[in-house]
């Protein structure tokens, strides 16, 4: 499966970001990609105001999603993109939307909110409380995560035990002490410990690091962007996945065979 990773500088104006997403979608289709992963909150972002997400949020049937739906019609490309939607009680949800051929095929409400490094996402954002569904993309089972979710190994393991062979992690990874190192360590570790592919895509510019990458089931980066806007591609190989899971059968060897259920989490 050919996958595309599109990182860009997210503007406070959703129209600008929608246009960028549409361009990346068209280029991904032209390149023959089956899956395009875009950053967390790529609909709109304003890092200068902590509560900007409240005024920038749109419903799932709003103009941003409709633009992407229109751009996807007549193609087989599956696009994963991030946005904020109103929660109905003055707050918002941080949501991934999955779009294919004019349809919204899935969405995921971020479970782990970024209350760290003197930031408090939960001030304006409500956490989700459901494990995201797996996606079928070009014969691969794909699991959804968002940014801070990468720091919680139970989530990745739960998705893989549900059958995920590929994990995607749209992010807006914030710059800071050792943060680039953490990004590389966490994406690599989640892929290696679960013997799966991991696609991590971060926004770039301003406060975000870029550095989007694809890690294979043996923990090797097979594609890597730098800090500037980019569209990069990688091939996911089912034979490689099977080979690694045969020689490194950690999923079979584990003794804790029942991953945590969501109602056992503190949510």
UniProtKB/TrEMBL annotation:
The keyword 4Fe-4S does not apply. Residues 1-238 form the CN hydrolase domain. Keywords: Hydrolase. One of its GO terms (molecular function) is hydrolase activity. InterPro entries: C-N_Hydrolase, C-N_Hydrolase_sf, De_GSH_amidase, UPF0012_CS. The keyword Acyltransferase does not apply. Pfam families: CN_hydrolase. PROSITE patterns: CN_HYDROLASE, UPF0012. It comes from the Bacteria. SUPFAM superfamilies: Carbon-nitrogen hydrolase. Belongs to the carbon-nitrogen hydrolase superfamily. NIT1/NIT2 family. This is Hydrolase. It comes from Chimaeribacter coloradensis.
